[in-house]
Specification:
The chain is built from ten helices and 17 strands. The protein has about 375 residues and is α/β, with parallel strands linked by helices.
Length: about 375
């Protein structure tokens, strides 16, 4: 055997610039704060790029659960939105939070709950009886869960005659699907509970609570008229959510100050497409990389205008109605920096990635 190769083979066991498998950093469910059971998943180890803060998935209520990447650049805005929700709900440091569906923590981000000083826990099993047992035993200050699940579980408690033993004054933070309005009287009767309606997505985080935006880059633009009522597309940081809502001066059922009736959500038709007209970037090449990243990890289609202005003072996005639909809707111009915050965050994430390459040496093409 070649003596030099023999020496190299011994050295790489103990030294090297690249890690062995057992030396690689690990991000567990516990590290993400979502170490609880669900009936909708298996636990699988994956190689996650170091430039992503974590991976999560959409809830899949109407289609396949799709993978979502969350960048480090996004975390401050996601955390701010989450803290606003916790503050508006009246929670305080040290309160117990019971989460019925662990991936919902990813919408907050576990760091937001840590920063706020909450203690959160999960069900032993993802079932209604396990929820009632946890509610009785842990007596949390608040519960995060899907509204129809909470309503069904509380109805079970009433039918079984055990509702009197459940804690009173719990705050129910409902999320994941449009608010089940039948929950409100049941929650009031059995728990004297305050119900809040959270609207958001895994891709961006929480967007509204009780019809009131929790981010500064939320904008509403007229969409279709349904049943004689005007609906409005919700735009977050320059990107359309594909969801439309009626707005009402009489207010949201959970808060009269909330004007966005999030529990009457409809899919937007026709959908908007996003065209980048101006960018603060110096290169359209980098901008095209941003557009591809948004498609891949956020599931949103962004196109770059062939005449895009680079080195602009602020981002300018144009939202156009899908011409294939045959339905004419006016174009909308979104101008930064406030209203394009999320898009600009993705730009920053791309710059961070390019400036701090995380390439594996095995893939180096040239020596």
């Amino acid at each position: 055997m070649n003596s030099l190769l023999q020496e190299i083979s011994l050295l790489v066991e103990d030294f090297g610039s690249a890690p062995k498998l057992e030396e690689m950093p690990k991000r567990t469910l516990a590290d993400k704060g979502i170490a609880g059971p669900t009936a909708a998943h298996v636990i699988e180890d994956v190689h996650t790029p170091l430039n992503l803060a974590y991976l999560t998935f959409t809830t899949g209520t109407s289609a396949f659960q799709n993978i979502v990447g969350v960048t480090y650049a996004e975390l401050p805005a996601r955390i701010r939105a989450s803290v606003r929700i916790l503050e508006r709900a009246g929670l305080k440091r040290g309160d117990k939070l019971l989460v019925t569906y662990p991936p919902l923590v990813n919408v907050f981000s576990g760091q937001a709950l840590k920063d706020f000083g909450l203690k959160w826990s999960f069900l032993v099993r993802s079932s209604r009886d396990a929820f009632l047992a946890a509610l009785y035993k842990e007596r949390p200050a608040a519960v995060v869960g899907e509204s129809a699940f909470l309503r069904a579980a509380l109805t079970d408690a009433k039918n079984m005659g055990v509702a009197e033993d459940l804690p009173k004054g719990v705050k129910l933070l409902t999320a994941g699907t449009p608010l089940d309005l039948e929950l409100l009287p049941v929650a009031q009767e059995l728990l004297q509970a305050e119900v809040h309606d959270l609207y958001g997505c895994q891709e961006i985080g929480w967007l509204a609570m009780d019809g009131i935006p929790v981010r500064d880059d939320i904008e509403l633009t007229p969409a279709a008229i349904r049943g004689g009522q005007q609906y409005y597309e919700l735009i977050a940081g320059g990107l359309p959510m594909g969801d439309s809502f009626p707005c009402s001066e009489s207010g949201h059922v959970c808060n009269k100050a909330g004007k966005i009736i999030t529990y009457r959500r409809e899919r937007t038709y026709p959908e908007y497409e996003v065209i980048v007209k101006a960018t603060t970037l110096a290169s359209a090449v980098t901008l095209n990389r941003v557009a591809r990243s948004i498609l891949r990890i956020k599931g949103r289609i962004v196109k770059v205008s062939p005449e895009v202005q680079v080195n602009a003072e602020q981002t300018i996005l144009e939202l156009r109605g899908d011409p294939i639909s045959g339905i004419e809707i006016p174009s909308v111009t979104i101008t930064g920096p406030i209203q394009t915050e999320f898009f600009d965050t993705m730009v920053q994430a791309q710059l961070d990635y390019q400036q701090n390459s995380k390439a594996d040496p095995v893939w180096t093409k040239r020596s």
